[in-house]
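tokens incoming
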């Protein structure tokens, strides 16, 4: 994922990314970007290289808001290389350049341990792998400094699995819902005890837009942490069955398995379903359930 800056008055958008081939062309050619493509500019940046970060900010005027979405999001890769995971997912030097810029940062529901769901923002975090630990470290860095945030405003969104249409880049990688669709007529096993509060990508975009609009209207953005998940607790098996129901194909070949009986090499929390009503109340919408999300995905 990338990091985006915006200057609301001019609508200029600066997109930082590291090495994703075809990224710029995919963004510029996307229908939703067609009307503002001339205001989008791109910069390649390794967030872990202090000199490169310094050069970027030396060349740029102050930004009005930063959506910090960049991360190594693969638990497997993070587990294999903890030092790189920490350097990328908690880019201290980069974040220290943004003390005068409101930051909206993406965290994860995996900060919870998975044994005491449903989780609220007041629940105790308990990361069980390197990836989730780096996200806890990111939250701590942005939130805490002598009991006061050292940033103009910092918001961390603990996101569940984000579901939606195919990405305009990286098409070789199927999203989970598209994988489920591809398994029509094929015997496939899905976990029934690994549960999340999945959220529609449209609701994620609405949430990010809320913070930008609030800033444009002069509203105060308060430093805080929010759960960002849908209203229902669903398993991988239930997601697969919902896709089958949407396309009216037989789901009897979708078999149930318990992750507790087949643990993987990377520790992973089981039930990290969340209560996200605080964020819903803030942004003023009700997040979509699984059925509506599946319909929107394949519309």
């Amino acid at each position: 994922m990338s990091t985006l800056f915006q200057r609301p008055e001019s609508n200029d958008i600066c997109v930082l990314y590291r090495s994703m081939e075809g990224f710029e062309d995919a963004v510029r050619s996307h229908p939703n970007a067609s009307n503002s493509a001339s205001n989008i500019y791109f910069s390649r940046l390794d967030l872990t290289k202090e000199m490169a970060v310094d050069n970027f900010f030396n060349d740029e005027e102050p930004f009005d808001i930063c959506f910090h979405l960049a991360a190594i999001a693969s638990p497997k890769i993070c587990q294999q290389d903890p030092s790189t995971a920490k350097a990328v997912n908690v880019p201290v030097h980069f974040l220290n350049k943004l003390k005068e810029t409101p930051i909206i940062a993406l965290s994860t529901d995996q900060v919870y341990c998975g044994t005491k769901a449903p989780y609220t923002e007041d629940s105790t975090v308990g990361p069980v792998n390197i990836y989730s630990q780096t996200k806890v470290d990111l939250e701590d860095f942005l939130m805490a400094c002598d009991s006061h945030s050292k940033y103009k405003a910092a918001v961390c969104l603990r996101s569940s699995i984000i579901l939606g249409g195919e990405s305009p880049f990286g098409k070789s990688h199927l999203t989970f819902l598209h994988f489920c669709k591809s398994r029509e007529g094929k015997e496939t096993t899905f976990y029934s005890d690994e549960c999340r509060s999945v959220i529609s990508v449209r609701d994620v975009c609405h949430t990010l837009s809320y913070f930008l609009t609030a800033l444009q209207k002069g509203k105060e953005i308060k430093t805080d942490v929010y759960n960002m998940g849908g209203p229902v607790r669903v398993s991988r098996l239930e997601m697969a069955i919902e896709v089958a129901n949407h396309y009216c194909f037989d789901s009897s070949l979708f078999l149930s398995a318990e992750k507790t009986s087949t643990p993987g090499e990377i520790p992973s929390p089981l039930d990290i379903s969340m209560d996200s009503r605080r964020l819903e109340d803030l942004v003023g919408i009700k997040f979509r359930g699984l059925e509506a999300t599946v319909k929107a995905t394949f519309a």
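note: The radius of gyration is 19 Å.
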